[in-house]
Design brief:
This protein has 231 residues and is mostly helical. The protein has 2 domains: 56 residues, no CATH class; 128 residues, no CATH class. It is built from 12 helices and 5 strands.
Length: 231
């Protein structure tokens, strides 16, 4: 076993990131890109980390990346601008304000509904996808998805303008888990409902409601949602 391999025989993510970073740094240097030493090392390290993370993602996330048809160059530029702001501490106050609802062990309260509106969906909701991805990869027709949405049988989260995305963890065998509509009826706000469904619930002895729903324990989850909402 070489120093780049993990015990299972495959290269580790850390080792792969290092190899990619080294290759990127060599490519930038060979093509005459003028960067100071520290910036060159930082850019190469980030590129290596991003590239190395992809093979270790769950299949659903790899499929989402593969189906992405956006402008990667512009997206990368936005990423580095955000990274620079974060490094300067520009997001410190925002991160501090979001610490409560982002905690995996905290019990959500209805007063956080508005706070969730200002937090990036990807930072708290888990894997989400739009109707195109669900149709192509989950075989869910758009018409069916929209019918579920009209009937509040699926949780749809607004993402800028009129676009909605759907948390993937709510689907079982190509359809929403039983009980989603009752939870939405009890809690009302889709963001707060999904946050509650994916957080340890005191009403369920610390269990995660969406996982309990998938065990067909609908009555227990709906009762807990009503108790949570009334509190």
């Amino acid at each position: 076993m070489t120093r780049f391999q993990n015990p299972t025989g495959g290269i580790s993510q850390k080792a792969l990131a290092g190899l990619v970073a080294e290759a990127v740094q060599q490519a930038l240097t060979q093509h005459g890109v003028l960067l100071d030493t520290q910036t060159l090392a930082s850019a190469s390290a980030v590129a290596g980390s991003v590239a190395a993370a992809v093979p270790f993602l769950p299949q659903a996330q790899r499929l989402a990346i593969g189906s992405f048809k956006g402008e990667c160059t512009a997206l990368a530029s936005e990423f580095f601008r955000a990274l620079a702001d974060f490094s300067r501490g520009g997001l410190a106050s925002a991160n501090s304000a979001d610490e409560g609802p982002m905690s995996a062990t905290a019990s959500p309260s209805p007063s956080w509904a508005n706070d969730l509106q200002s937090v990036l969906i990807e930072d708290w909701a888990g894997e989400v996808a739009g109707s195109t991805f669900l149709e192509e990869n989950f075989r869910i027709p758009r018409s069916t998805l929209h019918r579920w949405q009209r009937r509040n049988e699926v949780i749809a989260l607004r993402k800028g303008g009129r676009k909605h995305v759907f948390p993937l963890a709510q689907f079982v065998d190509g359809r929403p888990a039983s009980g989603i509509s009752e939870v939405l009826l009890a809690i009302g706000n889709p963001r707060l409902a999904w946050f509650w469904l994916t957080s340890p619930s005191p009403e369920l002895d610390g269990r995660i409601p969406i996982e309990v729903l998938k065990q067909d324990m609908v009555c227990d989850v709906v009762s807990a949602a009503r108790e949570f909402s009334s509190a």
